């Protein structure tokens, strides 16, 4: 893990064939482990409690993360901006390239 100057922590999930695995294939435990590795130990349990798997994660809106997970606002903002949104973008790009 690497601390970034903007306050986020970059997770280092498994890399397959030079790419991150597609989040759409993640189980709930993969999502939880991703956020634990990203430095959000306490908040990761919210994903477990709400049974958020990879497909659900990719469908989450900013409002879902900020209000639906019952976690503090600061960590929720970082989780959405530095993790959920980039994972959604990566997924969309990889699916566009695969077509």
From TrEMBL:
InterPro entries: PcG_chromatin_remod_factors, SAM, SAM/pointed_sf. One of its GO terms (cellular component) is nucleus. Transmembrane segments: none annotated. GO terms for molecular function: chromatin binding; histone binding. GO terms for biological process: negative regulation of DNA-templated transcription. Residues 26-74 form the SAM domain. It holds the Pfam family SAM_1. Residues 1-22 are annotated as: Disordered. This is SAM domain-containing protein. The lineage of its organism: Eukaryota, Metazoa, Chordata, Craniata, Vertebrata.
């Amino acid at each position: 893990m690497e601390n970034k100057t903007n306050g986020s922590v970059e997770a280092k999930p498994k890399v397959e064939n030079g790419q991150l695995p597609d989040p759409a294939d993640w189980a709930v435990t993969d999502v939880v482990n991703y956020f634990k590795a990203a430095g959000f130990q306490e908040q990761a349990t919210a994903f477990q409690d709400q049974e958020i798997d990879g497909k659900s994660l990719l469908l989450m809106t900013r409002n879902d993360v900020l209000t639906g997970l019952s976690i503090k606002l600061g960590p929720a903002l970082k989780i959405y901006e530095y993790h959920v949104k980039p994972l959604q973008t990566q997924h969309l790009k990889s699916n566009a390239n695969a077509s």
